[in-house]
Design goal:
Blueprint lengths: L1 E2 L11 H4 L3 H24 L11 E7 L13 H12 L5 E6 L1 H9 L5 E5 L3 H7 L10 E6 L5 H32 L4 H8 L3 E6 L12 H27 L5 E3 L2 E3 L8 H30 L7 H26 L3 H11 L16 H6 L4 H14 L8 H28 L11
Parallel strand pairs: 2-3, 2-4, 5-6
Antiparallel strand pairs: 1-8, 4-5, 7-8
Helix pairs in contact: 3-6, 6-7, 8-9, 8-10, 8-11, 8-13, 9-10, 9-14, 10-11, 10-13, 10-14, 13-14
Length: about 425
């Protein structure tokens, strides 16, 4: 290893002269501009207008009211209210799921609904009592949140549920005030009856205090993907430098090893073996830092470690396969595959039901989405398979197979065609 510039003063062209050549600017300028443009469109396109992009956000609607109906009516107030809520909300924006208490709790606990609106038992009786001397409290509707699905998704569901409850209260109020006016009720009572229902908001499936309001699953997954992505590129560059195919520069020091004659296929195999070993270390350190040092709430630790390792390994192998296939621009390609396209389609910060359809399409296969679902199931939903863990494992297996097949198919093709990497005369 020698220090650049030691001994003799290098001679050659001056930078200001070389910079005048337009062709030198062309490729870096075009690539950098395209990256800036597409990153801006991809990242901001998924979060700018979640309310306008709502597409069938699932919210549970539970009606425990058994009546009896108010005088002159055929249905309990709870049934009228439930029908009015589902009819007044666009079905393209919200998918109200009519469930009983048991099923609602199960779907909150498996992350299938973002929240719930509950009409309690005896609701009709409490509404009827408002116009009599038996009234002791206002009728109450309960809005349940599901913070394990992320603060924004839970907040959207809560806002929608509270708005529906408010509209339902006004509907009931119109009926009560009409009856009160006919009975000669005083203005104070009629003002109370105009909006008679109180709304209580509370968590339907609580998560730990050290869960980042439901965001630790996203950031933990981001750590897994980023360490695999960056580590994969470090391994790729380190192996190429060690085999003599690229220069190794550290500060002013520069070296170039003798080129080792090795096929593309064997080079990829070497990089993948190293990735499998190093990811063991990075996964363990990630868990130590987040759980042991920072105190992140986590359960099922062995399962979390195995899932984290397999997810990071699959991303790392994908990085190596893409670099082997695309060469110098492989790092940009893998950045788009694992980061740029993945983050806005993860559904971890903004629900997939609140992003444009393009991102919902990406979520079908983008690895970040699959890993987030598995991590979220382990951290918040008791590692239930139907909360996203089963899909996470299945898609990790698919990604693992695709990375191996894609990488080795192309490197073997390149080798058979004689498209070998440059071998120096020193060898």
């Amino acid at each position: 290893m020698t220090a650049a510039g030691s001994g003799q003063r290098p001679s050659g062209a001056r930078a200001v002269v070389v910079a005048r050549h337009a062709r030198l600017w062309l490729v870096p300028a075009v690539l950098a501009s395209l990256v800036a443009l597409f990153l801006s469109l991809l990242y901001m396109g998924g979060i700018v207008h979640p309310d306008d992009s709502l597409h069938r956000l699932p919210i549970a609607l539970v009606d425990d009211d058994q009546g009896p109906p108010l005088p002159g009516q055929q249905q309990p107030v709870g049934e009228q209210l439930s029908r009015a809520i589902t009819a007044s909300t666009p079905s393209t924006a919200v998918r109200w799921r009519r469930l009983d208490q048991t099923r609602m709790q199960d779907e909150l606990a498996s992350g299938k609904v973002y929240g719930a609106l509950v009409v309690p038992a005896g609701f009709s009786g409490s509404v009827r009592a408002l116009t009599t001397a038996l009234a002791t409290a206002r009728p109450t509707l309960t809005v349940l949140t599901n913070p394990g699905l992320g603060s924004l998704g839970s907040s959207l569901a809560s806002q929608i549920s509270q708005g529906a409850a408010r509209r339902g209260s006004l509907m009931i109020g119109r009926q009560l005030t009409a009856r009160a006016a006919a009975g000669g009720a005083n203005p104070t009572l009629r003002a109370l009856l105009a909006d008679p229902v109180a709304v209580v908001v509370r968590p339907g499936h609580p998560i730990g205090r050290h869960s980042g309001l439901g965001l630790t699953a996203f950031y933990y997954t981001l750590l897994l993907v980023l360490t695999a992505f960056v580590g994969g590129n470090i391994i790729n560059n380190g192996v190429d430098a060690g085999l003599g195919y690229t220069d190794n520069e550290i500060g002013p020091w520069h070296s170039r090893r003798p080129t080792v004659p090795i096929s593309r296929t064997q080079t990829l195999l070497l990089k993948m073996i190293m990735t499998a070993g190093i990811v063991l270390l990075t996964t363990g350190l990630t868990m130590i830092a987040t759980i042991a040092v920072l105190g992140m709430d986590a359960s099922h630790i062995p399962l979390l470690w195995i899932f984290s390792y397999c997810a990071s390994l699959t991303v790392g192998l994908g990085v190596q396969a893409i670099n082997a296939a695309f060469g110098g621009i492989g790092q940009v390609v893998s950045m788009f595959v694992f980061i740029a396209l993945a983050l806005p389609s993860s559904g971890a910060t903004v629900p997939l039901q609140a992003v444009p359809g393009f991102y919902r399409f990406l979520a079908l296969f983008e690895p970040f989405r699959q890993v987030t679902g598995g991590v979220r199931a382990i951290l918040y939903f008791d590692a239930r398979a139907d909360a996203g863990l089963a899909r996470g494992w299945a898609m990790i297996g698919v990604g693992f197979a695709v990375a191996l097949a894609f990488g080795f198919a192309l490197t073997r093709y390149y080798d058979r065609k004689g498209l070998h990497r440059l071998v120096s005369k020193e060898t």
